[in-house]
Write a structure and sequence with these properties.
Length: 424
Amino acid sequence: MTAAAVTSRDAVTPVVSTTPLDDVPALLDLLPAAAALSWVRRGEGLVGWGEAARLEVSGPTALAEAAAWWEEFNAGLDVDDPIGVPGSGPVAFASIAFDPAAGTSVFVVPEVVVGRRDGVAWLTTAGGGDPVDVLTSAPAALPAPLGRLRYADGALDPASWCATVAAAVARITAGDLEKVVLARDLLVTADAPLDPRSLLVRLAARFPDCWTFAVDGLLGATPELLLRRTGRTLSSRVLAGTAPRGAGADDDRLAAALLGSAKDRGEHALAVDSLVRALEPYCSGLTVPEEPALLTLANVRHLATDVTGVQARGGAHGRVGLLELVGAVHPTAAVCGTPTAEAATLIGELEGMDRGRYAGPVGWLDARGDGEFGLALRCAQLSDDDPATARLFAGCGIVAGSDPAAELAETQAKFAAFQAALES
Ligand SMILES: C=C(O[C@@H]1C=C(C(=O)O)C=C[C@H]1O)C(=O)O
């Protein structure tokens, strides 16, 4: 575990201070070009920049270590938070590895956070950040045009990836497992550095129903909410089962076919079951709709189930924190498979790439234990070494009835979400 100390200009107790704001421009427009942090949907949420503290953590106890670090960080603060809503006061943005035991998870406490919730806006500064002029100093110059974009295959070319899907279907048919989510990556290089702020603005405009996120160079707009905690209320939006969009009446036909598809309904049920089974022990009540709904996005349509629960008081699970809950529910069968262990092993065997933080939980948490974590999907990891390059990710659930060519097309439709932001 590596943790940067909380910075404080005068080495006294670090102060975290929240101030109400009357008039705030669009949150994403405030972001500086570098080190953007974001969790925004329909103009509300949080953006941040600067680093008051940072934790990078990996290993079998990564999330427990992160929870202890966050608690310790907050214990040492002098907090002034007259607003007291989820996301005001001290906040950490987090991007957790798909496999937290093997990959690196990143937690960042920004120096500056601007938030908006139910129309109320605020500014929080931490670790010596100067609130004065913070909003007027943030905007940067317009980025250079990206020029020509060059794409290259990631770990597997399309034909090899289709062969891995066929191999997975064979393993499922043989009875080794029920479902596995297989992903692939695509490399993109532009003529000029990729500008996180303009990518986020375009993603948010095209995907208003998604959460537009950025943490430590992982940027995207995810439609899937792994877990939100507000007080004792827990909520989740589970997605699995995907169809392409069509034109005119064709689109309606595709929507009806998705709702009626036994293959997609089965795939979806496995994802909902995995979430519900993991969450149930922590809840005094859980509401699970019997039928999935359709979630229609610009590039694809999903089967969606919104689950809500009330976290139990008292007992062994009464004081469980948000990070522990996130660790308990992740990975659901929406991004891993069923059974979880067999699916995770098969992913390691077949995918041929390191998922890093793709398909891991991404979001934020505050000092009260409220927070929101989505799954890092429809995203790209910007390169640390070359600011003009990024790695895009897309995956799909494979079950007995999966057709490799259709799954490849599904990954292409999912890549298109980020590609539209690069190309517009
Ligand atoms: C794995 C991804 O998406 C997941 C897989 C889905 C599916 O297989 O139908 C749908 C939504 C997500 O849960 C991805 O977008 O990369």
